Fold these 2 entries.
Entry 1:
Amino acid sequence: THAFARVQLHVGDAVDFLRNAPEGKYDAIIVDSSDPIGPAQELVEKPFFQTIARALKPAGVLCNQAESMWLHTHLIQDMLSICRETFKGAVHYAWTSVPTYPSGVIGFLLCAKEGPAVNFLSPVNPIEKLEGAMEAGREIRFYNSEVHRAAFVLPTFVRRELESHNTCAEKDKSETKPVAKPKKMKIMPNSAIPTAS
């Protein structure tokens, strides 16, 4: 039992729990799953994210463990693609330091189901403005508004890989559409001037 009346603890399979949850019940769902090996593989697949989206209220948000950018960019790419298809609001990858985790970092996917628009990149209620949050003996030692914003800043190689994957996914979607003929470019020092074909 818990000391908090609003807390209900359920011990069991989270996938089954969410499948049986009423539609639109939760404001937020936080998933700290195991690595996607064996039976846990379904935790990174589209049906699982669709189940989460169904259980969230229209303005609901998901924070999902999303591996290390140093070890699993292919998995992050796949999860981002799935979440961008499943969640109609903002979808972002963020990361933080966890010294005990392999590579020392862990990532998160932050997803908004629909609307109103959610700006994950900036704190809604900056910790520095909350009464008593920064008092000696009570202050949070790591988190602050700057660390929050920095969590979304990705190293160049990660940003390129994620953007490249997103561009490829968009290209795959548009391959059946007619593509406009590109204009020829004449390259000159310090400029590029389009010319008629």
Entry 2:
Amino acid sequence: MNKLNMLSARKVKLHGMTSAKWTTKDKITQYKGLINLYLRDSAILKTDTNVTKRRQAKELKQLQKQIETNRGVLDNAVRGDKQQLRNTLAEHREMQLAYQNHQPRKVIDAIHQINFNKRKELDKLEFRMKQKSDKLIDLKLELAVLEDRLKYVNPNDFPIEKQSAIVTGKVQDAILKKEAALAIRQTFIQIIDIMKKDALYFDAILATMKGDAEAQGACMINATKLGQLATEYLDDRRNEYKTLEKAVKRDMLARKQDLMTMQKKITNFATNIKQLLRRDSDLNLGLITIERSDSEIELRESFAKIVETLNALKNSTLVSNFDQIYPCFQTQLDHFERLTAQAVKCEENRDILLKKANHAEVMRDVMNNSMVDTTFQYKSEKKELLAQTDIQKERRRHALEVLKNKSDLLAKVRISLRQLQQMVKIFKMDGIPPEVYPGAGDEDAIVKPEEDEIDGTNNISITHYLIKLIKFFLIKYFRICGKF
């Protein structure tokens, strides 16, 4: 800003062009126009940001609806369709009421268990019937033996009795072997069923648990890194703001004290001015050089320090004059409060994410027992989508950086062109009348400066205007040199 100030005392001595219209008030008016341009640009950026936020909120709602729909489809694919289950069990009212909200796999296992229990009861009844039949046969045989004993004196002498005893023993042995074979067969059938389930789901469960553990760990690590970076950035901004606030308060207090001291000295000087005036004057007296007192030297040094401090603050805050320093600090305070509120909101979002992570861990434990073959495909598609999302985020970040650099460069070019235009407006050129500034009492006649276009179309007209002025000055300069 100071390098381009062609109206400073040093630059005026170089080019020799002065005018009574180049007052501080005119400069302030010009800089106020530039500030209005900056405020308008910030308002437009804020409006664009709000529109983008609303659009992103709408897209977020649509994504939430799609997630709910897809989650229902996934739930039906993983746990089974409950409506189809109720339709299947419509003929069995008791089973429908008992198992309509359960998973199909659990319902099948429960039906198998009921079938197994009923089959076991049937086996028990058949065994009891066999026992009763055997007991009936034994009783009939005993009845026949007793009848034979009544009929014959020595029943053991009959060969049929010996053969019947041998056949009865063999029948008992065959029955025992049959029961043992049935028990062994049932045991081996259960073992085979368990081994089939183990062969189908064991590897899938282990792979899924491993993938879920890695994904949850990566998610927690990334969340921790983001939270740590945000906390460090917030601490740095707080420390910088505190340091700047202390320096500003200290400088303002020193300035206030210096102003009060100066005001007191001016008041004392105004009261004692009559005593300092001479009653008679001598026209032949020469110039008298009054030595500066220590208080005056100290006052000048204090004033120079105040001006130096204010210039440093003006350069650090990038404002045009000293009056804009306090509003700039006020704006920074508003930004600090906004960032503080945003940090609190980020902490709340972090707590929500932790709760969601705990809920996801619980759901992972629940889904470990309800794994299907399509889960691996879903995991692979999920990883591909996450990779594509990261690529799109990186491209978006790069595009935003390029756009930011271009916008900064365009803003600097526009400001430089506007400053050049403001400096050359007072010169008169053929066909272009000089701009007339209003007087001290013509506040109503003040015209606001033209606003720059955001797309850069107005910069072209300013550039052509400056080229015409430069050509005009060169021609005039060469004409003056030709005269001499």
